[in-house]
Automatic annotation (TrEMBL):
This is ElaB/YqjD/DUF883 family membrane-anchored ribosome-binding protein. Residues 1-17 have a biased composition (Polar residues). The lineage of its organism: Bacteria, Pseudomonadati, Pseudomonadota, Alphaproteobacteria, Sphingomonadales. Residues 1-27 are annotated as: Disordered.
Length: 183
């Protein structure tokens, strides 16, 4: 028993030998990083980098959303301008039809009733002119003021317009379906 060593477990060098292969990188053979334990400088730098990246991403999203919002507003104003021009020309046509009808009303019902038709044509023509003279922002302000002044009438008008639009769309779809069925 005198030949036995009393140290158990046997004391070895802390650097792994890997079978005597010297080609192993020293970092692999004896790593010095503790992988997040006690390495607060690296953790702080990583957290700062992540926060900066997130902040940059948020700013990019905000910039993109702002740009998209401005494009949408510009498109809405362009469409509103086109609609304003079309509404003005349509109202001019209605006024012309009322003026033309006034002559026929004069012949059939009398001049007094024809004058009513001419007054209606003048009112429509005046309304058309006011629409053409105002820009889109002024028309929107007028609409807001009207809705604030009499919301019940505004809701009624919106419901009536919705009904008319639904009927027009429905008749267009039915006409399209009958055209497809005939083909």
């Amino acid at each position: 028993m005198a030949d036995t060593d009393n140290t158990f477990p046997p004391q070895h060098d802390t650097t792994p030998n890997f079978g005597g292969h010297g080609g192993v990188a020293p970092e692999v053979a004896a790593p010095t990083a503790s992988f997040g334990i006690g390495n607060s400088a690296t953790q702080t730098a990583t957290a700062d980098t992540k926060a900066s990246t997130i902040s940059d991403a948020k700013q990019t999203v905000k910039d993109g959303a702002g740009k998209f919002q401005q494009q949408a507003v510009d498109k809405v104003y362009a469409l509103a301008g086109d609609g304003k021009a079309k509404a003005g020309s349509a109202l001019d046509q209605v006024a012309q039809l009322l003026n033309d009808a006034a002559g026929q009303v004069d012949e059939k019902l009398g001049q007094q009733y024809g004058q009513y038709a001419r007054s209606a044509a003048d009112a429509v023509n005046s309304f058309s002119g006011s629409i053409k003279d105002k820009d889109v922002e002024e028309l929107l302000d007028d609409a807001r003021a009207f809705v604030a002044k009499s919301p019940a009438i505004a809701v009624g008008i919106a419901a009536a317009l919705g009904f008319v639009v639904a009927r027009v769309v429905q008749s267009g779809l039915e006409g399209h379906a009958s055209d497809n069925a005939a083909a």
